[in-house]
Amino acid sequence: MGRYSRLRRIQQMDPQQDFEQIYRWIIHYEFPSDYLHGTSIAFLRDYGVPRISRLLDRTQEFERAGQKRYDDTVLITYEMVREGMDSEHGRAAARQLNRIHGRYRIPNEDFLYVLATTVVGPKRWIDRFGWRRLSVQEIESLALVGRRMGEMMGISGVPETYAAFERLHDDYEREMFAYDPANRRVAAATLRILASWYPAPARRLATRVSLAVLDEPLLTALGFRPEPRWLRTAVHRVFRTRAALIRLLPGRPERFPRRPKARTYPFGWTLDDLGPHWAHSRPTTPLQDGTAQEDTSVPARSTVPRTPRQETR
Q: Residue 256, exposed/middle/buried by CB under 10 A (0-12, 13-18, 19+)?
C-alpha cells in the first residue's frame, strides 16, 4: 500500500457518516504511535488544573497502580470504538467508564476540558511531529468521536466541531491553570510510569525528553522548570527526523493494524479488568445519550463472540 493511499480514500469519505472508520484508521494505521504520544501529553495537561489533580492525588491511583491507571484510560477508549460506539460492546464500555466516574462529584466543566484534551492533544501532536498533518476529514472525525463519547458520558454542552473543542480547551487552560503541589505529585508519578518503559540507564533522559516537548504554561502549572533550549531543539529535530523516515515507508497494510499494547495485561483483558477494583461492585445505569433505555443487566465483560479476551499483539 502506498504511503498516501489511505489518505486519498479518507478524503473521499463523509466524516458525518464515516467518522468512526476514519478514527480507527488514524489510531491503528496512519498515526498509531503519534496518537498515543498526543494522548500522553493530554494526560499531563489535565494535571495543570488543581481541582483535577487534587482529586487524582486523593485517589492515589497513580502512586499505587500507575501503569494500570494509564493502560485502563487508553484501553477503555479503544474498547468504545472497537466495534462501533453504538454497538452493544461500545455501550458496555461507556457504562463501565461512567461507573468508574460515578463515585466522584466532578463538575461538568472539568469533564468537558478532559474530553477536549483527548481531541486537541493528539491533533496538535500529530500536526507537530507526525509524518503528515491531519486532513480536514480526520480532524472532523476526531471531534465527532469526542462529541459522541461526551454524549454517552452524559456530559452537557459538548462542542460540535474541532474549532469549538479547541476554543474550550484553550479558554479553560487560561482560566484554570495554576500551580498546586498536587499537580507536581501526580505529574511526577505519571512521568515515572513513562520513564519505566525504558532501560534504567535511559530513564532520566526519557523524563527530560518528555518535559522538553511541554509548553511553558503547562510546565509552570506542574511546577517544573523548562529544559534548556539546546535540548528542546534537539528533541524537536529527532522527532522531525523520525517523521521524515516514516514518510518514506509504505502504508500499514489493512491486515496488520497497530493495537494497544497494555503492559498491565500481557495476556489480554476484558472490560471487567478495566478500572479500580471497587468499580466492579457499583451498579451500572443507562447511558444518558438520548437513545432508548437499554438493559443494563448485560455483563460489562461482553466482547466479540468467540473471542472472550482481546489479544494484545
A: exposed
Beta bridge partners of 310: 269
269 strand-pairing partners: 310
Mean pLDDT value across residues 272-300 = 64
> Cα angle vertex 51, ends 46, 54, to 5°?
90
How much is the average pLDDT of 98-127?
92
Count other Cβ atoms within 10 Å, centred on residue 223: 17
**Residue 161 and residue 149: Cα distance in Å, rounded?**
14
pLDDT at 307: 37
Mean pLDDT (whole number) for 76-80: 92
Q: What are phi and psi of 290, to 5 degrees?
A: 85, 5
Reported confidence tier of residue 290, pLDDT bands at 50, 70, 90: low
Helices marked H in 102-228: 108-129, 136-152, 162-176, 181-195, 203-212, 216-222
Q: Which three cell numbers stand for residue 284?
A: 451500572
Burial of 3 per CB tally in 10 Å (0-12, 13-18, 19+): middle
Residue 144 near residue 17 (C-beta atoms within 8 A): no
CB 220 within 8 Å of CB 84: no
Distances (CA, A) of 69 to 179, 185, 189, 274, 311: 23, 15, 11, 9, 19
**CA pair distance 191, 181, nearest whole angstrom:** 15
Tell me how crowded residue 42 is: count the other CB atoms within 10 A of its CB: 22
Q: Which residue has the cell 497494510?
A: 253
**Contact between residue 84 and residue 20 where contact means Cβ atoms under 8 Å apart:** yes
Distance CA 48, CA 3 (A): 37
Q: What is the DSSP string of 107-133?
A: -HHHHHHHHHHHHHHHHHHHHHHSSSP
